[in-house]
Amino acid sequence: MDMTLVQIYQCLCDQTRLRILNLLGEGPLCVCHLQEILGEPQVKVSKHLAYLRARGLAVARRQANWMVYSLPARTSGELKANLACLQDCAREDPVFRADSARLNTLTRRLAQRGPICCAPAALKARRALST
């Protein structure tokens, strides 16, 4: 799905969506993991994920009873550039750094005791990205 710059920036003009995209830049995550990391209710996280999916900035796949989200495999040059900029800028922002720390803690916890919610494939993808 090709998006104009205006459409991309419309998607990026919300802090929760930026936080989600930044986390998905690290690898696929289950909705419950995003909810835990962001400290937001499931309804809010799902609403933003639906918004991103409808505009082609996120994709989902069902694993058993859970939905695992990731960034699309193919994106436009404009979107790639903006996502790279987001990840660069996020390193300096305390909210995004806290999200990253919670993601690292979650990844370590899941590696030790296994995922409670989603299938092992999501955990395997997370481990591959964290090494």
Q: Residue share in helices?
A: 55-70%
Q: Can you tell me the CATH architecture?
A: Orthogonal Bundle
Could you tell me the CATH topology label: Arc Repressor Mutant, subunit A
Count of folded domains: 1
Question: Residue-averaged pLDDT, rounded?
Answer: 83
Strand content: 5-15%
DSSP summary: helix tally: 7
Strand order of the largest sheet: 1-3-2
Broad shape: globular
Show unreliable segments: 119-123
What is the tally of beta strands? 3
Compressed to H and E, one letter per element, the order equals HHEHHEEHHH
Distance between the termini: 31 Å
Name some characteristics of this structure.
mainly alpha, Arc Repressor Mutant, subunit A, three-stranded antiparallel beta sheet, 7 helices, 3 strands
What does it look like?
The structure is a single chain. The model is unreliable at about 120-125 (pLDDT under 50). The chain is mainly alpha-helical and about 130 residues long. The protein has helices at about 5-10, 15-25, 30-40, 40-55, 75-90, 95-115, 120-130, and strands at about 30, 60-65, 65-70. It is about 65% helix and about 10% strand. It has a single domain, classed as Arc Repressor Mutant, subunit A (Orthogonal Bundle), CATH 1.10.10. Helix 3 packs across helix 6 and helix 6 (about 95-115) packs across helix 7 (about 120-130). It is globular. Strand 2 (about 60-65) and strand 3 (about 65-70) form a beta hairpin. The N and C termini lie far apart (about 30 Å).
